[in-house]
Amino acid sequence: MKLPWNKDADTPGDNAADENIGAFEDTFEDASLPKGQTPKKGRPTPKRNEVERQAGTRRAHYDAPLTPKEAKERKKAEKDSMTKEEFKEKKRREREEAASARKKANERMMAGDPNYLLPRDQGKEKLFVRNYVDSRRYMMNMFLPIALIVVLVMIIGMSAPQIANLVSLIMLFAIVLLVIEGFFLGRKVNKLVDERFPERAFGRWTLGFYAFTRATMIRRMRTPAPQVNIGDTV
């Protein structure tokens, strides 16, 4: 290896000296590198626009409007530059693209993709709670049907108060049982989370209420959709 400031040598002695110096330099460079650090790749990092050109995905430059007035003027100028049919076609294409994006986001969210989950569903602890709740049956699964029956009883009570009172007592007893079951479910999931995730990111009330609200939803209506079957081990 020849150093940049060394001149070309014609004599064998000079060449041998250059080789010795190069070997020493290589050894010195390798020894000077910190542990775990790799040597430089020997070429500059390519720019974003160069990579985009090679991939054929070069994006056009876009200056965002600074004010709402400027944005309105740009929109008006764009509309004036098109025919009526062209403008309708552009709006139709934008609606289709937006609908396609919403459909994809909803599908990925229902599949449990972390990149598309709502903030309330993000976190490994909440994923565990969802799977735990979805793998079991609870009386709380009937919470919405019971609530619907209570509403119907309130409507029917105007014409048959005795029957309405009896059904109301039964529904009240069922609701008390659901609350008790939800309390024990919250304690159970928090205990399991403590065992599996010592450095938990959510409070006990947050995870307990999250498990309760998911258990009260009908299985088909849960979002994200259940990723485990009833009876699976979580």
UniProtKB/TrEMBL annotation:
Top-level taxon of origin: Bacteria
Record bears the keyword Cell wall biogenesis/degradation: no
Residues spanning the membrane: 138-160, 166-186
Record-linked InterPro entries: DUF3043 (IPR021403)
Chain spans, region Disordered: 1-105
UniProt xrefs under Pfam families: DUF3043
Biased composition range(s): Basic and acidic residues: 1-10, 69-105
Keyword tags: Membrane, Transmembrane, Transmembrane helix
Protein name: DUF3043 domain-containing protein
